[in-house]
Amino acid sequence: MKDPLRLYLPKVKHGESFELGTSQQKHVKVLRLTSGDSCEIFDGIGNLFQGELKIEKRSTSVLVQELLKHEEQTNHLVVAIAPTKNIARFEWFIEKATELGVQKIISFTSFHSERTNLNQERLNRVVESAASQSKELGVPEVSDLISFSELL
User: Fold this and answer.
1) What's the 3-state SS for 63-96?
2) Which band of pLDDT confidence, cut at 50, 70 and 90, is reported for residue 1?
3) Cα 42 from chain centre
4) Nearest partner of 20 among 3, 41, 45, 36, judged by Cα
5) Residue in 110, 102, 109 with CA at minimum distance from that of residue 126
6) Distant-in-sequence, close-in-space partners of 111: CB < 8 Å, separation ≥ 6
7) What is the pTM of this model?
8) Eight-class DSSP state of 44
9) N or C: more exposed end of the chain, with fewer CB within 10 A?
10) What distance lies between CA 144 and its chain's CA centroid?
């Protein structure tokens, strides 16, 4: 039996209907899901909900039906890392840290750092995707790039 589609929707509430974003709509289309199919929704803070898809011509929404599971965040892992020159390696680390259940990732620059800026939007997408695929119910916060002295 295949696993149901798992969607990340922050600030989700029982009984409400939410419009899906473009990337989430693509997942629904690729999986050939239809109106009435069920899915799982997680809010990033430990709650897992059952949902029902409603697919129309130009939009897709999900109705949040019931709370399936609530997981308290027992570990409070924080990781500080200086981004590597190769951004793909840094994104790989972010993905694996998310899968392990890290709750906050702090990126910093040091004396020998070559990377001075990060695409926060891209890193958030990596984190959300990793959390969805690994079945984690928490989504870590990825901080903006700060200096090493600010970190200390």
Assistant:
1) EEEEEEEECCCCCCCEEEECCCCCHHHHHHHHHH
2) very low
3) 9
4) 41
5) 102
6) 148
7) 0.76
8) B
9) N
10) 17
